[in-house]
User: Fold this.
Amino acid sequence: MTTHPESQLANSVLMIRPVRFESNPETAASNRFQGKTAAAPEEQHRAALQQFEDLAAALRANGIDVIIVDDTLEPHTPDSIFPNNWVSFHADGRVVLYPMEAENRRTERRMDIVEHLDAQLGFQVSEIVDLSHHESRGHYLEGTGSMVLDRVNRVAYACLSSRTQLDALGEFAQRMDYNVVAFDAVDRDGVPIYHTNVLMNIGEEIAVICDAAIARDDQKQAVLERLRSTGHEVVSLDFAQLEAFAGNMLELRGADGERVLAMSQQAYDSLHDEQRALLGDNARIVTADIGDIESSAGGSVRCMLAEVHLPRAES
Assistant:
């Protein structure tokens, strides 16, 4: 299958402004990063909304096209702030919809948002690839949370968990022409890591990964060799940095053509001086304090951004 040439870096991102944000009880069993707050739901939402706006403003100030769509009051979707789990947008015009483990996350999938990008904002949508039918069989693949995509080299890296399963992963790979590098990853207590994008990120030239979390030595070597074979310099994170969401960064392209590396303030603070220098030489680093979002919902900056790689309609 021939696919559109695709840049690793997007200039446009979709963000969903929350209306009833709170720690989601339906996802707590598989996400050890969430629920680290004693705040009431109303307080969680108020803090998250301000931090959402701060992140969006920081990205816009650094030349990123930020497309904001408001969540809906009903049905209640406490994790709607993380759109990259239900949708991905690709340079050939295809839009992929994903099967979600938590029932209250499935209503995050909104075709009105896809139609808005197409009809009002000038992006071209050629096809909807709907993988949500896997939910009926209990098979899940939560978008670019479950997979970290090397879009240039057509490699999907995926740590397997209750939210990232081989059947759905295989259909994605077949339909979207990706090779899969699957592996097992656990935290420092040996508990499976729920999403791949909390432990690794792939930019144009640098890949950041907590390779210590990969459970098997053969899998670890396979992942590192594939990253290096595709020309990536590897920056290794430790478990403390993983827990601070340093793996949950995202490299983007600013309007000036320069690379922009978005991460939370907590993630940035966890990095060593040498890591900051290396990453800062590669891209303009943009940070925002989203600590309340991280502690309540167990996701960080990368989870909040769905890159829009769709082609623009010719004017």
Notes: The two ends are 29 Å apart (CA to CA). Residues 41-61 form the longest helix (21 residues).
